[in-house]
Amino acid sequence: MDLPRDFLKKMEGLLQEEYESFHKSYEENNQHGLRVNTLKVPLEEFHRISPFALEPIPWTAAGYYYQESDRPGKHPYHDAGLYYIQEPSAMAVGEIVAPQPGEKVLDLCAAPGGKTTHLAAKMKQQGLLLANEIHPARSRILSQNVERLGIKNAVVTNETPGRLTERFPGYFDRILVDAPCSGEGMFRKDPQACAEWSLENVALCADRQLDILLHAGRMLRPGGRLVYSTCTFSPEENEGVISRFLKLVSGFEVEEVRAYDGFATGRQEWITEGAATIEKTIRLWPHQLQGEGHYIAVLKKTDGRTVEKRQAAEMFREQTRLKDYFEFAKAALAAAPQGKYMLFGDQLYIIPEQMLSVKNIKVVRPGWHLGTVKKNRFEPSHALALAATPNEVKHSLTVTSTSPELEAFLRGEAIKAEGEKGWYLVNVDGYSIGWGKLAGGVLKNHYPKGLRRHGSW
Length: 457
Ligand SMILES: C[S@@+](CC[C@H](N)C(=O)[O-])C[C@H]1O[C@@H](n2cnc3c(N)ncnc32)[C@H](O)[C@@H]1O
Hints:
CATH class of the domain at 5-14 and 90-301: Alpha Beta
Radius of gyration: 23 Å
Structural class: alpha+beta
Bound molecules: S-adenosylmethionine
CATH topology of the domain at 5-14 and 90-301: Rossmann fold
Domain SAM-dependent MTase RsmB/NOP-type: 22-302
Oligomer: single chain
Active site: 231 (nucleophile)
Pfam family, one: Methyltr_RsmB-F
GO molecular function: RNA binding; RNA methyltransferase activity; S-adenosylmethionine-dependent methyltransferase activity
Binding site for S-adenosyl-L-methionine: 109-115, 133, 178
């Protein structure tokens, strides 16, 4: 690999006798990982059905190494949301955030959604997961991944940390700042990060990271936990940002992180005036484990201001407009889902109970999308399909992952099928993948146009 000379010089100075083995790691290929989405398939079941040879990743309960030649991204189980393809070291972050079902959790820099989907699996569809991404196009990709993995309790926003802080002071139990960084830890995987690297950019990233972290600190409730992570090695962006934060803000302490084999500690000596507790933060090195470079710190808020009174999400008052939805639910679902229904224009959602008002906030996905209220009928959404199981609907059609029917369905074609008229949840080997509408022996295709496949795979 053609690595930036200034980068190598800096790493040699930092790592000294360890530098040689670090440098050698660039001669090896990066490892590939997938994380099973336990919202859709229990782990033991995935072990039984997995078409791929899998090796467990030690620091993640649902994470596995796979062989690149298996191409899990092409398998229909990917479209059905059974797993998320994620760099192995990145899986340590969600484990360390460790959100509990029912909590209020913010993922502040969330796209494309690797960590959001990991946090969601741990929350088991309960509580509020606010996934935010500042870049509009990236926030839409994040939203698609939330949909694909069948997540019901996530709200996706497209905001600056500053604007979220105005709405959510002292609100969250846990916050993840997976900060934009110089990406030094990803050079093996992402040659573009390598091409864009410079010492100036490292300094720029560090200032931006501190700014994001300061906002995050204000949104944390007293007693809550703030996890900061990067995929870079530079001490300025890691130990440096945490030390600067601790100097600027009182009432936070660094918490010990559970270490696995191969995890190393943060390095106090690499920054000037580094807090001694910085050694409780962790570093993942590509020459010490099978994964790329990462840094993770956990900060606990030991005190805080009294929390201001907040505005609850607007109540929904238009029950009459839901008549067609309830008729659809009666005909197609085993039971209408419980929750706080809300209409945004003609789009119907169930929003997480703990969500606050979204007025003046750029919302990409306000909750679990159920479908569109049309004139005299209701059309169910892809998000409703992906989060449903065959026993939650009245009619379902099972196809196998290798069947021509599934290929046709994913291409957007109609399928021949017999049965009662109505909406059918199409599922691959029992895992929901989309809607079809049956009439006259033909299942009309409702697989979203943007997701359809072309040719075979
Ligand atoms: C490391 S990536 C996040 C990866 C994501 N957590 C995942 O696991 O898939 C950092 C994200 O921060 C976003 N970002 C960039 N500048 C930002 C800012 N000033 N405030 C908040 N987020 C920012 C980037 O667009 C990027 O999507």
